Amino acid sequence: MKRLAAPILILTAALATAASGAEKFQKLSGGEIRARMSGMEMTDSTHFSDVFAAGGALASFGMGKKKTGKWWVQKDELCVDRGKDDSGCYQVWVSGKKIELRHEGSDFALQEGVLKAATRHD
């Protein structure tokens, strides 16, 4: 019985450590969204980048193309408008530099990436 107890304790400790290392995302309020997004870039470092200018201008880069639009905060959500069929409002969830955009009531990220200082996209 003692031989079985030691491996079980080790497995339990390993699982507890893994669970505590899980990322904890926090939902941002409207003021926090404005403060965090203004002048920043959200990117997955491969497929897309969205640059949120301080004045509400939005520059989106993806698949070798640039789109321009605007962004604003409404009812604790980040709203974006990139033109026809490409707009909406989303909750913003963060964990460190990681960021997720979600629809209200969903745990599923519609868009995820990292938030960093905006860079030039010439």
Write the H/E string, N to C: HEHEEEEEEEE
Indicate the low-confidence ranges by residue numbers: 1-20
Number of domain modules? 1
Helix fraction bin: 10-25%
Relative strand content: 35-45%
CATH topology: Lipocalin
Largest sheet: 8 strands, antiparallel, barrel
Terminal Cα span: 67 Å
Structural class: alpha+beta
Report the mean per-residue pLDDT as an integer. Answer: 84
**What's the overall geometry?**
globular
Tally of helical segments: 2
CATH architecture: Beta Barrel
- Report Rg: 19 Å
Give structural attributes:
single chain; 122 residues; alpha+beta; Lipocalin; eight-stranded antiparallel beta barrel; 2 helices; 9 strands; 22% helix; 43% strand; globular
Strand and helix map with partners:
Blueprint lengths: L1 H19 L5 E2 L2 H8 L2 E4 L4 E5 L4 E6 L2 E10 L2 E5 L5 E9 L2 E5 L8 E7 L5
Antiparallel strand pairs: 1-7, 2-3, 2-9, 3-4, 4-5, 5-6, 6-7, 7-8, 8-9
Structure notes:
This protein is of the alpha+beta class. The chain has one domain: Lipocalin. It is built from two helices and nine strands, in the order H-E-H-E-E-E-E-E-E-E-E. It has helices at residues 2-20, 30-37; strands at 26-27, 40-43, 48-52, 57-62, 65-74, 77-81, 87-95, 98-102, 111-117. Strands 2-3-4-5-6-7-8-9 form an eight-stranded antiparallel barrel. It is globular, with a radius of gyration of 19 Å. 15% of the residues are buried. Mean pLDDT is 84; it is low at 1-20.
